[in-house]
Amino acid sequence: MKKILLITLIVMLVPAALAGTIRKIKFPGLRTFSSSELEAFLGISRGDSLDFNNLSRRLRAMEDSLVANDYLLAHVDSIRLDTLHRDRVDLSIYVNLGALARVREVHWQGDSLSVSPRVARTARIRSGSIFRWASLRWDIAAILEDLGDRGLPFARVTILDVAPQMRQVPEVDVTLRIQKGPTAKVNLLRFEGNRLTKLRVLERETRLRLGSLYSEASARRARHYLQKLSYISSVEMPDIVFDEQGQTGLFFKVIEAPSTRIDLVAGYLPGRTEGERGTLTGLVDLSLLNLMGTGRRALVHWDRPNRTVQTIRLEYEEPWVAKQPVALMAGFEQRIEDTLYVERQISGRATATLTETVQLWARGRLQELIPDSASRELLGIPSTRTQGLDVGFLWDTRDWPANPRAGAMFSTFAGVGWRKSEGTTAETRCRYKHNLAGLDAEVAVELFPRWIVDMAFHGKMLESDEPEILLPDLFRLGGARSLRGYREEQFLGSRIGWTNLELRYWLGRSSRFFGFVDGGAFFRERLEGEHRVVLQDLKLGTGVGVRIETGVGVWGVDYALGEDDRPLSGKIHLSLQSEF
Q1: Per-residue exposure over 261-274, b if at least 16 CB sit within 10 Å of its own CB, e if not
Q2: Which of 143, 150, 148 is nearest to 237 (CA)?
Q3: Are strands 341-353 and 491-493 parallel, antiparallel or unpaired?
Q4: For strand 88-96 and strand 21-26, is the pairing parallel, antiparallel, or unpaired?
Q5: In Å, what is the CA distance from 496 to each residue of 41, 117, 461, 499, 535?
Q6: What does the alpha-carbon distance between residue 459 and residue 477 come to, in Å, rounded to a whole number?
Q7: Alpha carbon of 475 to those of 217, 437, 481, 496, 512: distances in Å?
Q8: What's the rounded Cα separation, in Å, for the pair 71 and 38?
Q9: Of the candidates 373, 382, 371, which has an alpha carbon nearest to the alpha carbon of residue 467?
Q10: pLDDT at residue 570 above 90?
Q11: Cα(20)–Cα(78) distance, integer angstroms
Q12: In principle, which of 63, 160, 340, 458 could form an S-S bond with 175, CB 3.0–4.6 Å?
């Protein structure tokens, strides 16, 4: 400060004739900061008029900025003015940064005993460490987070003093005051923005127990649980509120998503030969995501992957059975393969949500295969009944599963089935065992702002002690939702796997433009007389696509080419996902 006063006095004695426009500002010998940074600290730029009355104030501001950038002993030694012709001036400022100070002692006053030993051990500002303001802010945030997680959200940490000590090695003493404030409990839950969803549904989805000690971690988890609901669009971090009796609680602002969703997919497949007409394919998904505001779900699905096959599936899900985070689902599915056979499945599934990112599920299923008489005799497809049990695991950290910018997903399952096959005679009736497994994984990484690489991997496997795995049991590969560039369900295999690699330009929460490369492989064995023939291959597909959110829903267009396709003979897939 004394040096600044001396510089001010000297400047006041400079003749007024030296005043003029600043041509250049120099900081001789200073390399730690760039010239533009130092000019920003000073608040004076080249081309400004030199104001002697303002200069001493700007020099003090510059010293304060250097202190705020960890140089606690920084000061201005001197300045020099070089007057040029036409009233132009070069300003040279000599700055002594000094050395970075080390922490000598840290004094915690007030409610310091309320800080947990774990936070104290991990503090960045400690005796012997280099003092940095960022480290001090990190320590204060860690203290407040720790106290908040232990029911003290009103705690405060005040910096009382940061006192440099003028020694041979610069040192600093830091003094903090900790005030823990009153203890808070979650005695009430309030919501705003839920026009359809019932209050009790949102309360149970938070997983918060009334009367429990407030915790910032549990508040964040509650927000995440609500955000994961398909009928909730967004949730703000909850605020702490008080009622008329002075009890504390949490206040959530939510925005509901439309509770009814319709997915429409249409495809056009060119003819296999030059004279063959193309085929229209289609899919309709009607999802009721929040029946009567209770969180119950229902699904009606119809699918026609090609001209000979159509599938219908019905599902109903009841959440929070016995007041536990367990959902029960019942489903029915029927697949009609032209006049060859009818396949039906009845299933029941239980899903337990363990954390905001982890689920476990188990499913029981009963399948029935009813062949046509011609298929029974000519193709050797028998009538079968299969009972099965599957268990699975899901881990999902994606920020928005339909169009993620970041996060990962991993899902896997394994199952076993027992089949009774009824032949034409009593001697051909047999029992068999099936083992099946699968996995799905996805990773989204934002390489540059809005440019995202999304990688997905999928695989399924079926093993059986039957002489040959029946045609209806084989997995199907190809089409808009697996291997693009090929016909829907073009390839069959007892083992299939495919990967989707997309480079996306993120346009919004539901919108993107992307190019993709898909790879798929299949494997199956078939009996031809007494010989076992292996069928396997690896296929690649490439293309581009777009998803655009409009007033009526999210429109999608994919154009994909298989390995043998010409540029104008690719597969086109149109889709519309509408919500209301």
Answers
A1: bebbbebebbeeee
A2: 148
A3: unpaired
A4: parallel
A5: 63, 53, 7, 11, 12
A6: 10
A7: 43, 12, 14, 7, 30
A8: 13
A9: 382
A10: no
A11: 19
A12: 160
For residue 154, give every residue at least 6 positions away whose Cβ sits within 8 Å of its Cβ, in sequence order, or none.
181, 182, 184
Confidence class for position 15, pLDDT limits 50, 70, 90: very low
**Residue for token pair 């503090």:** 123
362 in helix, strand or coil? Answer: strand
Q: Identify the CA nearest to 517 among candidates 545, 475, 489, 549.
A: 545
User: Residue 305: pLDDT above 70?
Assistant: yes
**What average pLDDT does this structure show over 493-501?**
97
Could you tell me which residues come within 8 angstroms of residue 392 by beta carbon, excluding any fewer than 6 positions away? 360, 361, 362, 363, 411, 412, 413, 414
Q: How far apart are the first and last CA of the chain?
A: 67
What b-and-e string marks burial along 75-108, b requiring 16 or more CB atoms within 10 Å of the CB? bbeebebebeeeeebebebebebeeebbbbebeb
Cα–Cα nearest to 92, from 105, 101, 80: 80
Report which of 97, 93, 87 is spatially closest to residue 44, judged by C-alpha positions.
Answer: 93
Cα 534 → chain centroid: 41
3-state SS, one letter per residue, for 281-333: EEEEEEEEEEECCCCEEEEEEEEEEECCEEEEEEEEEECCHHHCCEEEEEEEE
Residue-wise burial string across 152-163, b where 16 or more C-beta atoms lie within 10 A, e elsewhere: bbebbbeeeebe
**DSSP state, 206?**
T
User: Which tokens sit at 192?
Assistant: 């705003």
CB 371 within 8 A of CB 361: no
Domains recognised in the chain with CATH numbers: 2-96 (3.10.20.310), 102-179 (3.10.20.310), 185-256 (3.10.20.310), 260-579 (2.40.160.50)
Q: What is the pTM of this model?
A: 0.77
Adjacent-strand bridge partners of 352: 326, 360
For residue 517, what are its two tokens?
Answer: 């490369």
pLDDT at 168 over 90: no
Interacting residues of 72 by C-beta distance below 8 A, sequence separation 6+: 98, 101, 131, 162, 164, 170, 172
Percentages of the chain per state (helix, strand, coil), in multiples of 5: 20, 50, 30
Amino acid at 145: E
d(CA 153, CA 241): 12
- Write out 416-434 in H/E/C secondary structure: EEEEEEECCCHHHCEEEEE
Helix (H) or strand (E) holding 222: helix 216-228
Copy the structure tokens of residue 6: 């001396």
Q: Taking a C-beta distance cutoff of 8 angstroms, is the pair 262, 577 a contact?
A: yes
Nearest to 116 by CA among 155, 161, 60: 155
- Give CA separation, 457 vs 360, 462, 496, in Å: 20, 18, 11
* H or E segment to which residue 135 belongs: helix 133-149
